[in-house]
Amino acid sequence: MAVVAADANRIVLVRNHEQSSMTAGSYLGAKGTYDPKCNGGTSTLVFSPSQKKWLSSWASLSGLVRPCAGGPTPWNTWLSCEETSNGVHNGATYQHGYVFEVPAAGIANPVPLKDMGCFSHEAAAVDPVTGIVYETEDSTPSGLYRFIPNVRGQLAKGGRLQMMRLKT
Q1: 99: closest CA among 83, 87, 86?
Q2: Which residues contact 85 (CB under 8 A, 6 or more apart)?
Q3: Average pLDDT, whole number, for the chain?
Q4: Where are the domains of the chain?
């Protein structure tokens, strides 16, 4: 989880729910659900530091499998990363192992960012100057990836994924 937006009046926190079931079903309506069979996703919470109280919370993305880590972006969104490569071969409706982008306000568009790769994702970190996203993999063996977006701050417009190779 991370704070994805903040000012003097509110702090917006998006957190993953690392659920793995491919039969329990989504906890959100079709608008914010990727795979209706799956129960992982995110929730968004808004806190007022001046009032010292929670203002609101809502389910912001569902239908994922094991959204483990991820990372905040400089453009006030959260990257929720699925830590799996399960899919239809394991009983899901769709392939899993993708990154999804969650806005600070409202419900996410539940479309996987396929150009960012399909593997057992762990974390993501965005270079605030270039917009390049660095991704880690939670598998054996695993890799370190770099996603170079076609348009900085607009990951859904695609890009190029590279994997680091070490010379020994």
Answers
A1: 83
A2: 96, 97, 118, 119, 120, 139
A3: 95
A4: 2-163
Question: CA of 128: how far to CAs of 73, 75, 90, 111, 132, in Å?
Answer: 8, 9, 37, 23, 8
Which stretches does DSSP call E strand in the chain? 2-6, 11-17, 40-48, 53-64, 67-72, 77-82, 99-103, 121-126, 133-137, 144-149, 159-163
Distances (CA, A) of 140 to 81, 120, 124, 137, 143: 17, 10, 18, 9, 9
pLDDT digits (tens, 9 = 90+) for 81-129: 999 999 999 889 999 999 999 999 999 999 999 999 999 999 999 999 9
**3-class DSSP state of 90:** helix
- Please enumerate in sequence order all residues whose Cβ is within 8 A of that of 14, keeping only pairs 6 or more positions apart, or say none: 1, 2, 4, 42, 43, 44, 45, 60, 78, 80, 102, 104
Q: What is the dihedral of CA 1, 124, 29, 63, to 10 degrees?
A: -110
Structure tokens at 83: 């830590």
Q: Say yes or no to pLDDT of 15 above 90.
A: yes
Nearest-angstrom CA–CA distance, 50 and 56: 15
